[in-house]
Amino acid sequence: MADPSSYRPRPGEIPDSPGVYRxxxxxxRVIYVGKAKSLRQRLANYFQDLAGLHxxxxxxxxxxxxxxxxxxxxxxEALQLEYSWIKEYDPRxxxxxxxxxxxxxxxxTMNEEYPRVQVMRGHKKKGVRYFGPYAHAWAIRDxxxxxxxxxxxxxxxxxxxxxxxxxxxxxxxGYIGKCSAPCVGRxxxxxxxxxAEEFCDFMAGRTGTYLRRLEKQMEQAAEDMExxxxxxxRDDIGALRKAMEKNAVVLADATDADLIAVAEDELEAxxxxxxxxxxRVRGQRGWVTxxxxxxxxxxLVEHALQQLYGEETGDAVxxxxxxxxxxxxxEPVQEWLTGRRGSAVSLRVPQRGDKRALMETVERNAxxxxxxxxxxxxxxxxxxxxxxxEIADALELDGAPLRIECYDISHLQxxxxxxxxxxxxxxxxxxxxxxxxxxxxxxxQDDVRSMHxxxxxxxxxxxxxxxxxxxxxxxxxTLADGDAPTGALKDEDxxxxxxxxxxxxxxxxxxxxxxxxxxxxxxxxxIDDIAVCGLAKRLEEVWVPxxxxxxxxxxxxxxxxxxxxxxxxxxxxxxxxxRSKRAKRFRAGPLDAVPxxxxxxxxxxxxxxxxxxxxRGATVEQICEVPGIGxxxxxxxxxxxxxxxxxGPAVNTATGEIIxxxxxxxxxxxxGEPVRTGAPDERRGxxx
Length: 688
What we know:
The protein has helices spanning 39-46, 55-63, 75-89, 137-147, 158-167, 172-175, 189-203, 208-223, 227-247, 297-309, 330-341, 353-375, 383-395, 447-467, 512-524, 558-587, 599-609, 612-616, 620-624, 631-643; strands at residues 19-24, 30-36, 66-71, 105-108, 117-120, 129-131, 257-264, 268-277, 280-290, 320-322, 346-348, 403-412, 415-425, 428-429, 435-438, 505-509, 531-536, 541-543. The chain is α+β, with helices and mostly antiparallel strands. The protein is flat, with a radius of gyration of 33 Å.
């Protein structure tokens, strides 16, 4: 866990203006996105005393390694950027937006005879126009409610539409003018589709022309002294402008443009780019460069354009590129951009209107980027190398542990005992090297014996591969423990065999007993050049063999944080394997042998009795108390269970679900990626 004070910005560095902020972990993954009316005030809340924070907030700020922000002009822009980046980055701590497993969209069913405006989630369907995503369904309904007075498109369900057509009476929206009531023939299908297309055009950002037309109609109505019509048009325009704010369209007429801004001083320059597509800000990027020579702003822009569009796989050139100053000469650059796009590109400096206002926002972000760059302390060491050096110093190793292997034992009350081996090289997970084990030497729960067995098996394989040559299978189930393998150190491609490469450090999940077991296993094999340590969960204590007291690493230590990530990844990998084995055993339980007993009644039995063991001890009369279970079925269940081998998974009495021993740990460095399950006993993990 990181100390938030280690990356806390100084209050003077944070702008007192609206914006969107992103917390990142040490691997630069975005773990949280938020918006604020005042970035300075909001971010200050995260860096107070940890004891005063909500547990989830505390977990987020201690997982994060940096925070950055984007300044915008209004809260509306901040809202749109928050929605867009939550969808793009899928931050693990933004769970409040995931209650329905997907983001709601405003959808227009153009594939129907009478298109309908509605809220939709899940997979997108062909022939349906989607706009969004939004954070909440009520935000969509607010927008639609404003637009219906101008575009009275159908919003009712198919059932309501048919009932209205049958009765000849429209719904309430038809009476108050917020639906054109195609159900009763007030408009035909063609006119209603035209309304829906205008609605879609407006939502897509093509707003400028439509608003100007309404304004002219309003002025003409006023000149003709049709004041009621003029007032209605005025209200329509107001509703559309308010809807535009809610929809966060920053540029009208569905503009596609890149806006480039530069902030500079005598020595350095910061460049920021906003990518606007369909009138909305879809992305942002930037960089800082040294000014090694006397260079103008126009020349900086030219270099930025080359950086942005020069690569063969670079970004597509939009129709407009807005810059703070034009390159000199302009013609070659513009011709080059046109060739990259395949059609004319407008390269210009915005002078007024919405584009100028948005350019000012980009310029503020460039200025903030330059300020932050200058306030950061320069360092020659990466975070990972610093962590490895801290571990080496704390454990008194001869050098940095470039390869670390971590082992964890997982079981449920002594059943399905398994172990995991995860590998980190240069501080990064090496998933192709992961292995998992079934405990074979004994039955029941004994973490110390299990750890001894796993370490022995892994390093017996290491010694055997080190000494032998020839071809052999990489699956352990083809080789009995203690047998000499017929394999070589390298495969036919010249790469080391999977168990042939030793670690510099073995980490076990546990305290003194587990560490002693691992060390004893290595000593029995005559291996004395591999260090061992353990990380106990309770106080995050680091234990080494033969010591009565743990090694103390500072809570802000990068080395401790790396050990925690390695340990948590081993725990996640082990419990994933253990759960898969347990789920298979549950699916193949004794109740499967009862003829005619389906999943629903199986779950009802488990919920009622709590476990298969308790069900086995129940009488026929007690089994009959379960809803849906008759006497004949109860007698069959009792007879089958009496013949079955005792045993079965523990089950939650309230929900009928298997009781988990622990929740899987997902760390900032290792989100819960899927892994392959099943035999063989030891098998590599699979990258997502």
